[in-house]
Amino acid sequence: NFVLTQPHSVSESPGKTVTISCTRSSGSIASHYVQWYQQRPGSAPRVVIYEDNERPSGVPSRFSGSIDSSSNSASLTISGLRAEDEADYYCQSYDGSVTWVFGGGTELTVL
Amino acid sequence: QEQLVESGGGVVQPGRSLRLSCAASGFTFNNYVIHWVRQAPGKGLEWVAVTWFDGNDKYYADSVRGRFTISRDNSNNTIYLHMNSLRAEDTAVYYCARQRVVGASFDSWGQGSLVTVSS
Questions:
Q1: Is A47 in the B-facing interface, judged by CB distances under 8 Å?
Q2: How do residues B46-88 score in pLDDT, each as one tens digit?
Q3: Disulfide check for A16: which of A12, A29, A69, B45 has CB 3.0–4.6 Å away?
Q4: Do B104 and A90 touch (CB under 8 A)?
Q5: Cβ neighbours of B100 in A, within 8 Å
């Protein structure tokens, strides 16, 4: 199995852009799609990016995802930050042997 | 309205058993792969188990394999998680989550059910 490593926390001011990284420890980041989930306090997670860079309906276009094979990582970028974006964010991928892996989560603070 | 609703959580002593349920509504249940995901207090998400469409294929995280059993009743649109030999480290909110028809994302989640393992 591989590990997905995320920064423990990030912070930025309203209106700015923030990027959260998710680095895969072994195997190629491109071998299986990466998803991103948002979890607000006291709520269940909800997917904000699936299949590396696709947005579900209802998720603002301010949210975008990408992968970078050179650094073996995925990124979630949120532009035009709003107070409502303050939450925990988790990356997730499939390991190919019928197990699913989540990153440790990143706490986003909107200053 | 598509919905997943967990139930069955509570306080249980170490070594005892508990069964969680996840009732689905608003979608064609047997068209979907369903997972259990847990979250220990103040911690991140941990994938626990998955059941395929007909319930015959099931897979588990190493941390629960041999102690937990996932099952599904397609006639009642319900998923179960049978948890045996519970340990303090199994204390968590347990979510059921639906996997998108195409791809690996979890596109619908229940509200969660808290399991506390304590003497």
A1: yes
A2: 999 999 988 889 999 999 999 999 999 999 999 999 999 999 9
A3: A12
A4: no
A5: 50
Number of H helices, E strands in chain B: 0, 11
The answer for residues whose C-beta is within 8 angstroms of residue B65's C-beta and 6 or more apart is: none
Average pLDDT over residues B85-103: 94
CA-nearest residue of chain B to A3?
B46
A99–B59 C-beta distance less than 8 A: yes
Q: Please tell me which of the candidates B47, B109, B112 has its beta carbon nearest to residue A99.
A: B47
Mean pLDDT over B81-97 rounds to: 98
Which among A108, A103, A110 is positioned nearest to A6, based on CA atoms? A103
Pairwise CA distance, residues B96 & B6, whole Å:
7
**Burial environment of residue B15 by CB neighbours within 10 A (0 to 12, 13 to 18, 19 or more):** exposed
* Spans of chain A, pLDDT less than 50: none
Q: Answer whether A94's CB lies under 8 Å from A100's CB.
A: yes
